[in-house]
Amino acid sequence: MRSDRFPRPFVIAAAALITGAGLLMAPALQAHQAEPFEVNVIGGTSQPLEFAVIPFAGNAEVSSIVRADLERSGQFKLAPDSKVPAELAGTNPDFAALNAAGLDFVLTGSVSGGTVSYRLLDVPNQSVVTSGSFSGGTRDVAHQVADAIHLKTLNKKGAFFTRIAYVTSTGLGRNMRFKLIVADSDGANAQAVVETDEPILSLNWSPDGSRIAYVSWLNGTSAVFQVNINTGKRTTLSSYKGINSAPSFSPDGTQMALSLSRTGNPEIYVMDLASGQLRQITNDRGIDTEPVWSADGRSLYFTSDRTGQPQIYRVSAGGGSASRASFSGNYNTSAQVTPDGQLATLSGGGGGYSVAVSGKALSRSRSDERPTYAPNGMMLLFATGGRGGRLVGASSDGRASFSIPTGGNAREAAWGPYRK
């Protein structure tokens, strides 16, 4: 079936056709005007760290990228450059003056050739808490410095030296053209790895970051593909009769969960990627779709309308009975799960759909698409605005929000794993 719309993966999984179980009403089917992006602050009363980044000697662009990374995370309150004269954080830091400025940490650094050296001052403890260096391209080393700072100050690895993927579309009707784009986590260095006149949907990264699985069309029907982002080589993973949708790599990269209607009704299956053998996980009269793995690979979360309205369910990766996992609201789809079990969904109803984390609304736009977590679980990214889509993100506690530049209509966001 050739589609001239830009349907969501959930529509694909429900076939956008009448099945024996009926048609699930999918979010974001209709065109929406771009709306302001807002988030609700849901992270409690904890305060961000007061932080200053001194422009790095030799290349201030590096420190600007580090600063933008830290600010985007929502965990740091960045002081303006004018607040902290560089001489206060020199070889012999003036900790009294820095403390009077209300700072928790101050980052200084320098760039020489392709090497960036940095030093982080702990102001209250009047000490150098960490220092180090990275070599490479400007943007790569800047993101690595930001990751190191995030780890040292928050005891959790940052997710700035990662990549994101998304889909852009141009043209109208049968003249639409689609690109699968891979970019840095802040949207820089964007490159197309797939270009086609068929819709591209439901992106999912392999754990090693070398491949992206996605849904498109083959000989008039939906199919699951994977593309090597370094070589551009594309292979077909699933093209059974009926619906092939919603691919999700297992945490160890050896298996893939997906939704297939090869026996008539959309069910969750797990495919062994080495042999291609399938194992059916669910067997229900409802529509089961959008599987995602738990961090330990032992469970699958998926969307089903088995009790009426779509909700999120959890089932053992080996199969068996499923239990409901979402309870807030009448309509929850598109689950994403953090390593510590935090659940993000699309939540809503006929009036629109927005991102919710652990049942609490994160966005008020009402035209959101499937959220995707950063690998540390502390930030989310998603498309909003319907067919005029743009990529926006937020800290998972709702403290900060940001936009990702894409140069045009963007959909189907997927945040990649840590880079090696």
UniProtKB/TrEMBL annotation:
<keyword id="KW-0574">Periplasm</keyword>
<dbReference type="Pfam" id="PF04052">
    <property type="entry name" value="TolB_N"/>
</dbReference>
<dbReference type="InterPro" id="IPR007195">
    <property type="entry name" value="TolB_N"/>
</dbReference>
<keyword id="KW-0732">Signal</keyword>
<keyword id="KW-0131">Cell cycle</keyword>
<dbReference type="InterPro" id="IPR014167">
    <property type="entry name" value="Tol-Pal_TolB"/>
</dbReference>
<dbReference type="InterPro" id="IPR011042">
    <property type="entry name" value="6-blade_b-propeller_TolB-like"/>
</dbReference>
<protein>
    <recommendedName>
        <fullName>Tol-Pal system protein TolB</fullName>
    </recommendedName>
</protein>
<dbReference type="Pfam" id="PF07676">
    <property type="entry name" value="PD40"/>
</dbReference>
<keyword id="KW-0132">Cell division</keyword>
<comment type="subunit">
    <text>The Tol-Pal system is composed of five core proteins: the inner membrane proteins TolA, TolQ and TolR, the periplasmic protein TolB and the outer membrane protein Pal. They form a network linking the inner and outer membranes and the peptidoglycan layer.</text>
</comment>
<feature type="domain" description="TolB N-terminal">
    <location>
        <begin position="38"/>
        <end position="126"/>
    </location>
</feature>
<comment type="similarity">
    <text>Belongs to the TolB family.</text>
</comment>
<dbReference type="InterPro" id="IPR011659">
    <property type="entry name" value="WD40"/>
</dbReference>
<comment type="function">
    <text>Part of the Tol-Pal system, which plays a role in outer membrane invagination during cell division and is important for maintaining outer membrane integrity.</text>
</comment>
